[in-house]
Design goal:
Number of domains: 3
CATH architecture of the largest domain: 3-Layer(aba) Sandwich
CATH class of the largest domain: Alpha Beta
Order of helices and strands: EEHEHEHEHEHHHHHHHHHHHHHHHHH
Structural class: alpha/beta
Mean pLDDT: 97
CATH topology of the largest domain: Rossmann fold
Largest sheet: 6 strands, mixed
Length: about 450
């Protein structure tokens, strides 16, 4: 079932006769629980025309480096195989994405795409809508509940969006029907060879200053990780996710960011393998409520990736204490190289640089120290976002922008006033020691 709330006509109209249906894949790089794919396949069957897919690969995508491109290409490799198993060809075309999709759409009677929440994604879809001569349909598949169905404004915090999402869950947290029978386009140029992602990354000539992380991307590995999590770790997730010295987290963030795993797939699998309890509740809170709060922020705040997009109260609180003495000032290069006096901070930064992720138990401490060690709160925000986007596999993501913003008061409330932070929440190293064995974590990453 594809709920009508997921479907928006970016360029209305009725498809013409003949031609083919083009699926522009961009955010949902998978075959399972992909509403845009199933909508396109259904339209191709209804119209009696072939179906083909295209992905526009832009080597100049803002802030993306070899780590990000390899993970993405691992997903495209799996997508090509998965679509081929259904007889649907995929072309990966290199260049300015709207140009490449427009070229691929020559002769199409309908273009279907997925939904993106960030500025560049919205700009690409708007640009293409203005240039196409055929109907252009957007189908939302990377949120369990469509974002504008939940709310038509920026929500203040999780507590304000949670009841709105929960009222709609029974309608949207349901399996997606899949029907075979769509006819693939018989003469489709495959474009870029994505069979060897590492080789392709080198050939693209993208920024290679950051090497790939430990985790392999793609739908196959993502579903394997999901199975491992829901069958072995989910019952202990509520407590296990808080300790960075154990494998207690889902580690799905990269797969979700690149669309290799659907949040619908993850949420349904968690429900299927659990009889309820705090583990399931905590996972669904993170997977649906917190994640879609991030989408809401990026959808309704045009300055979502800027210090100026933070709440007025937190910016005022920080700026009132901007002249407070700092215990030490580090350059961005020193932070990048994990060259500080703080062992726990260095370990967290090293984990992120090596693996492409940082455990959530360290993220708050990591960010609060950057605020302490920077000349101004604005500089601290820019540094935290730059480091996050440079190394995290899910960097440049709605969740990343909100995670960094939360360090500076986003979706939070005022706390007791203190130097440097004003009334923005603070965390000391002693707070880490109460939660887990900090020394063990430091030894692991030193």
């Amino acid at each position: 079932m594809i709920q009508p709330e997921r479907v928006v006509a970016l360029r209305p109209g009725e498809p013409g006769r003949g031609g083919f249906v083009l699926l522009w894949v961009q955010s949902s790089v998978r075959t399972r629980d992909n509403h845009a794919l199933e909508y396109a396949a259904g339209e191709a069957r209804r119209l009696g025309v072939p179906l083909a897919a295209v992905f526009g690969l832009n080597p100049g995508y803002p802030e993306a480096n070899a780590r990000h491109f390899q993970y993405l290409l691992e997903g495209l490799r799996d997508l090509k195989v998965g679509l081929a198993a259904r007889g649907i060809p995929l072309a990966v075309r290199v260049g300015h994405t709207p140009d490449e999709v427009l070229n691929a759409a020559q002769g199409a009677c309908l273009v279907v795409t997925d939904r993106g929440y960030l500025r560049v994604q919205r700009q690409w879809r708007a640009e293409l809508a203005g240039r196409l001569a055929v109907p252009f349909i957007q189908v939302e598949s990377d949120a369990v509940v469509p974002i504008r169905t939940v709310s038509d404004k920026q929500e203040f915090a999780a507590r304000t969006i949670r009841p709105k999402i929960h009222r709609l869950l029974d309608r949207f947290l349901v399996p997606l029907d899949v029907e075979d029978g769509a006819q693939g386009h018989p003469d489709w140029d495959p474009g870029l060879d994505v069979g060897d992602p590492a080789l392709t990354v080198r050939a693209l000539g993208v920024d290679n200053s950051v090497s790939p992380g430990e985790e392999e991307g793609g739908e196959v590995k993502g579903l394997q990780r999901l199975t491992h999590f829901v069958t072995r770790l989910l019952p202990r997730y509520d407590a296990g996710r808080r300790d960075p010295n154990v494998d207690g987290g889902s580690r799905l963030s990269g797969y979700l960011h690149y669309g290799h795993v659907s949040p619908l797939t993850a949420a349904l699998a968690a429900r299927q393998h659990s009889d309820g309890g705090p583990g399931l509740d905590a996972f669904l809170e993170e997977m649906i409520v917190r994640r879609e709060l991030s989408f809401n922020f990026c959808e309704f705040n045009p300055m979502y990736d800027s210090y100026d997009g933070l709440p007025t109260w937190s910016r005022e609180a920080l700026e009132q204490h901007a002249a407070d003495p700092r215990p030490v000032l580090y350059t961005r290069e020193q932070l990048d190289a994990a060259q500080t006096h703080d062992r726990a901070w260095n370990a967290a930064q090293t984990e992120m640089v090596r693996t492409g992720r940082m455990h959530n138990a360290l993220r708050m401490y990591w960010g609060k120290k950057i605020l302490e060690w920077s000349s101004t709160p604005r500089e601290a925000y820019d540094r935290a976002l730059w480091l996050n986007n440079r190394y995290e596999l899910d960097g440049r993501d709605a969740n990343s922008y909100v995670s960094v913003g939360w360090l500076f008061g986003l979706h939070d409330r005022p706390w007791a006033r203190r130097p440097i932070f004003g009334t923005v929440r603070y965390l000391a190293e002693s707070g880490l020691n109460r939660k887990f064995d900090t020394d063990a974590y430091v030894r692991r990453w030193s």
